[in-house]
Design brief:
By secondary structure, the protein is mainly alpha-helical. The strands form 2 sheets. Strands 1-2 form a two-stranded antiparallel ribbon. The protein is globular, with a radius of gyration of 16 Å.
């Protein structure tokens, strides 16, 4: 079972994924996210790079489709997906999801391919996913636990894990997608 804090954070993430803000997530939301990310990355249509970005965002949707009805996922279905994913019995599946999630973030946002996400690259993530950019510097500072001005894969894995699983309201990873405290439950 998800805790009230997890529900609040994961509902915040649902609201980010609901790109058209119609109250459900569907394939079009993930396509729009992909298109937005391609624009941020200055990737032209009909290029192999564009296809890679679209495949990544569509792949996220493909993982959700068993949990939705008629091609539309409600917030309740999203939370059910996350409940199954975060169940301790599914730890290996969760670890694979976590690794794939962070790998995807790095493929999309480590623009200079140095193995780190800079604050500028992290701001691009916020812009690409239409998260309020005003939260990006605070989020970045919270996630950059060694304060070296960049996010390593290890820091990102720890942050995503804290966002998904932690019930500590002060966990740094809670800020992964910005102002979750202001989200409606």
């Amino acid at each position: 079972m998800l805790t009230p804090l997890q529900i609040k954070k994961l509902s915040h993430f649902f609201n980010i994924l609901d790109f058209d803000k119609n109250g459900s997530i569907e394939a079009d939301d993930f396509e729009a996210i992909g298109e937005n990310l391609a624009i941020i990355r200055d990737i032209d249509l009909d290029t192999p790079e564009y296809e890679v970005v679209m495949a990544m965002t569509n792949g996220i949707w493909d993982k959700l489709t068993p949990y939705v009805e008629n091609g539309e996922g409600t917030e309740q279905q999203w939370l059910q997906f996350m409940t199954v994913l975060l169940d301790p019995k599914n730890i290996e599946t969760y670890k694979q999801y976590l690794n794939n999630f962070v790998t995807t973030i790095f493929k999309m946002f480590d623009i200079n391919d140095d193995g780190y996400i800079s604050q500028t690259e992290y701001i691009d993530l916020f812009i690409g996913m239409r998260i309020e950019v005003r939260f990006a510097p605070k989020a970045f500072r919270n996630l950059d636990t060694n304060q070296d001005g960049r996010l390593s894969k290890e820091e990102m894995i720890r942050s995503v894990d804290q966002f998904m699983r932690s019930d500590n309201p002060n966990a740094a990873g809670n800020w992964l997608f910005g102002g979750w405290e202001e989200s409606k439950v």
